[in-house]
Structures are given as C-alpha cells and as structure tokens.
Specification:
Largest sheet: none
Structural class: mainly alpha
Helix content: over 70%
Radius of gyration: 17 Å
Oligomer: single chain
Length: 200
C-alpha cells in the first residue's frame, strides 16, 4: 500500500510539473487565446487557491497537495498570456489584489476556510462548465490543449487514491470525483470540436 501511495503522489507531482505547459505553449505559439475561457481560468485559479489554503490550514501531509503551488504558478502564467492576447493586461492588477487578499481572508476564522472548501467544489465545477459553455458556443476548441485536460483527469484519479489512503476527507474526495468526471467531459468536448486542417 505504501508503494502505491508513493507512486500516486510522485506521479501526480511529476505530471503537474508540466500540466499546463502544453496549454501555455499552444497559446504562445499561436499568439492567440482563442478557445480558452477567461472565466474558467479565473475560477480554476480560485479553486486551486482555496484548496491549497485548506490543505495547509489543516496540516495535511505535504505530499497530498504539493502540486498546487506548481499549478497555481502555471495558471498565473497562463492567465497573463490570456489577458495579453485578449488585450486586457490592465485587468491583471485587480486579479492579483483579489487573489492575495482572498488568500489571507480565508484563514481569519475556521468557519471561513471550511465554508470556502465547501464552495471550492462548486467553484472548480463552475470553471469546468465555463470552459464547456465556451466550447459549445464557439464549436471550436481553438488553442485548448486536450493533453492538459487529459493530464488533469489523471491527477484527479490519482488524488482519489491518495485521499482514500491518507486523510479520507469526504469533502476532498467528493471534489476529486466531480473534477474527474468534468475533466473527462471537457477533454471529450475539446476532441469533438478539434478543427482539422484541410489539405488540397
């Protein structure tokens, strides 16, 4: 069991080291954020921040959430690219203020972090639905990386295993199960709307 736990933890961490890289590379190479939902990205980043703060507040084992600072850094980079390519870089400062302020607000009282964690699943699910809605409306996955979403699916599956083997926290477990299902759905939708280049 210890070997399985170590494998799940380390493989999750390794995947998360490069999780957003395919998405960042695709956006950078195209010089466009077409297909990416800003709303989805902001909600995802919010969910990651709440989840990291909750895990650290309750002193959960570091290896069960070590990937979150890495994911947050990658999401911030991706957010900056999306803002840049959509001509909205002036929105970066308000996002920084809100995220940093929220980080400190979350632990002012125990009930605040507990409530935030309960809402975290809804926030994270809303981020997936925002991306789905954007894909459904445009019928074009543009620069959205199916590889990034597939890797997110894998990390949710491994975190279900690690949560069952360590903290067994029902809120965390439900979050990962819901995110697993939604990540699969987003990946399938990306693949469905992938435009293929026509050759003459």
């Amino acid at each position: 069991m210890e070997a399985l736990l170590a494998l799940a933890n380390w493989s999750t961490l390794l995947v998360c080291l490069v999780l957003k890289l395919p998405q960042v590379v695709a956006v950078r190479a195209a010089g466009s954020a077409r297909g990416l939902s800003l709303q989805s990205l902001v909600l995802e980043l919010s969910g990651f921040l709440v989840f990291l703060r909750y895990q650290s507040y309750y002193s959960y084992p570091l290896e069960t959430y070590l990937e979150y600072p890495i994911l947050i850094a990658q999401d911030v980079i991706l957010l900056l690219f999306v803002l840049h390519y959509s001509g909205n870089m002036k929105q970066a400062l308000p996002y920084v203020v809100i995220f940093v302020g929220g980080w400190y607000f979350l632990t002012l009282q125990k009930w605040v972090i507990d409530l935030a964690m309960n809402l975290c699943t809804l926030i994270s699910a809303a981020s997936k639905f925002a991306q789905l809605r954007y894909l459904w409306q445009t019928r074009d996955s543009g620069q959205v990386s199916a590889l990034t979403w597939s890797m997110s699916t894998y990390t949710c599956a491994t975190r279900i295993v690690t949560t069952l083997m360590t903290t067994n926290d029902p809120m965390v477990l439900v979050r990962f199960i819901i995110m697993l299902v939604l990540n699969i759905w987003v990946t399938a939708t990306i693949l469905r709307y992938r435009k293929t280049e026509k050759t003459d």
